[in-house]
Amino acid sequence: MGDRVRSQLQTELNGGIPTAETIAHSLSMSVRSLHRSLKNEGTSFQSLLDHVRHEQAVTLLANARTSIAEIAFLLEFAEVSSFPERSWSSHLAYRSGYC
Q1: Nearest to 13 by CA among 53, 44, 46
Q2: Mean pLDDT of 18-26
């Protein structure tokens, strides 16, 4: 189930931050069933969403023409300061030429 949710998140993230309701509906299941299935796999919707956002941020960071502000906007962080620089610092350091 986690792979199906991750795949759906990757598809839907381009149109904004998908909700558990949106993903459950696209997988023809209830939100409760979605959460229960993910819990049985030892994960959660939020964890998968965070992982997919991280993957897309890393991909976007590799493109030097995309600004941090634009990446934050594309991945729906409330503001640039919300962009999780600390946890992704190695990618930002690489981007800045410090690595």
Answers
A1: 53
A2: 96
